[in-house]
Amino acid sequence: MKVAIVTDSNSGITQKQGKEAGIYVVPMPFMMDGEMYYEDISLSQQEFYEKLENGADISTSQPSPGDLMDLWNELLKEYEAIVHIPMSSGLSSSCQTAIMLAEDYEGKVFVVNNQRISVTQRQSVLDAKEMADQGISPQVIKEKLEETKMDSTIYITLDTLEYLKKGGRITPAAALLGSFLRIKPVLTIQGEKLDAFAKARTMKQAKAMMIAAIKKDMDERFNDPEGRVTHMAVVHSDSMEAAQEFKRELMELFPETGEIYVDHLSLSVSCHIGPGALAVTCTKKINL
């Protein structure tokens, strides 16, 4: 069976990367100062951060049902089925919308709800493509990705509390106090949503906390203390130099994990946490 793999730009997969890999990427829409932009189509990473730092009023949205159905309809002229992998249902309503729309496609569109975002979502997409290339059915691909949905972990430290305040996730007073005390909050994504994890006073301390948390997860959750069967990645919001430095530190600590992938955080996350954020993620490899 010929199966198309579709995702959205929250995965971090660019339009160019998608074309090279045979993956279809739906651009996420952003409303910025009253104007609609589409990630990696009419909005680049650089433009996004420039607008963010200039105080633009930014809100995220989801792909329109019409755009999504147009893509599916076009793909089904060439493919027998579609596996669609959107961002976590806990972070966007786009997953639920896709599930609802798929009901009209008579079992030809399989929407995966496996609570992933950014590079963990990207890994799910790459795994799906590999399974599809091996001739595995779309139903089995969906089941495999959903069965292993909690086999990933993300820890993020923020450079500023300003954007959490803007989004109403903390009060202005808490943001002011945190900035005064130079607090670097460490957040975590474990499936459904972005949660508080710890507080640090310096980036060095925050990185140490994230490393300790990753070690614990790899040991206790993934049963892989050396990282032999785990994909590790470093992601950032407009902070490539710091991300490359963090990668070098992690490669010394986990030499058995192989190459550590480095990428930007998806813009849907970045608009809530601001520039200068740094994250580490682990995703257990799927037995195909």
TrEMBL record:
SUPFAM superfamilies: DAK1/DegV-like (SSF82549)
Alphabetical UniProt keywords: Lipid-binding
Annotated organism of origin: Lacrimispora defluvii
Superkingdom assignment: Bacteria
Keyword GTP-binding: no
A Pfam cross-reference name: DegV
Stated name of the protein: DegV family protein
